[in-house]
Fold each of these.
Amino acid sequence: MSTIQTSSYRRQRDHFEPQDIDPQEQRRLRGLLEQIDYAAFVANREVIGHALPKLDPAMFQRLAVMTAGARAKWVSEALRQSESGAPATPDQIARLTAARTAYEELAEAYEGLRRMVERGYLSIKT
């Protein structure tokens, strides 16, 4: 089973790959699976293409800047909390958690958007 590493979690691929069937049946099954994959590609391209605006490089840059700002806020909050040397309070931990969650969500959105372009679901105006 292969694993896909994203920035904050791992997704398992559990595609069944038959080993004990004859070559003709394997070709037929692979052809069917290619049709299924193509149907998913077309569905993603149509649905995502209608749901999201036409992208341009400036949109990616704004999302990247926002993500970088969230990362900086998260780390600066951790550093600020560590200055006293006292154990963190529940309120401090909640603020730190909220900052980390914001960063992780923005980073996943950026990576997701990039994957959509890479897979051909969206195009970028140049």
Amino acid sequence: MVQYRKTSYVVEADIRSFFDNVDHEWLMKMLSHDIADRRFLEIIEKFLKAGIMEDGKYLDSEQGTPQGNGASPILANIYLHYVLDNWFDVIVKKQCEGECYLIRYCDDFVCCFQKRYEAEVFKKKLEERFKKYGLELAEEKTKILEFGRFARRSRKARGEGKPDTFDFLGFTFYCGMDGKKQFYRCRVKTSKKKFRNKIKAMKEWIKSHRTMPLEQLFKTINAKLRGHYQYYGVTNNTREVKNFLTQTKRLLFKWLNRRSQRRSYTVEIFFNGVLRTFPVLEPSIKVSLFYR
């Protein structure tokens, strides 16, 4: 939508504690709209009101969907389908003169607009819409950004800096150009927050499993790297993916040297010896984001 359509503004929004604030009454009305089986609806209602265990204590659940349960994401998706998706397609689009698009995954979403005033009107109406259904936007994380193929030129004409960036599903989206600097490109890279969290998780795992036999340890490390590459290995994100591998190697060197009181490896022995015996998986681009 941002790459090839007439997007000039992006509404970046965040729902505050979404899973904790799903209204049971509204959810049951939405479900009954498409489900005729009363017994099935009763089971879902009992599931919603079953309560949760937290630190060994039972807590009633008057609202929200229990997280960690397989049905919770499905019910949450149904809720947002009626609250957001259907409303956007049926009402918002018809009221806009310019182009507009909604991209949502679970409770994360961004909305793209051609005209700024329509983005501003939408943001205001979105707050009212969410309030009706017991939801609330996190004001500090909800904003309108000038973004798209015309943003760089417009901001330069006004004497302003580079276009804003936004984060979505673990990526930072930013305005750029192709290799020859002839065409606009919506580029992506791993968001700094997600990168730090991934490195921290890798560090904790290596630290707690450093005494594991090397063959098994590196086999698991490669499985973790493979998962990272398959998600973050997209066009333009090569440098960040390679950086993740570099940081992983440094963590391995640091914590494998703490398997005992004596230092186990020098830099040369580790990188030219251990990593040759147990090679780590090299990164590759798994998904191309462009078709031209």
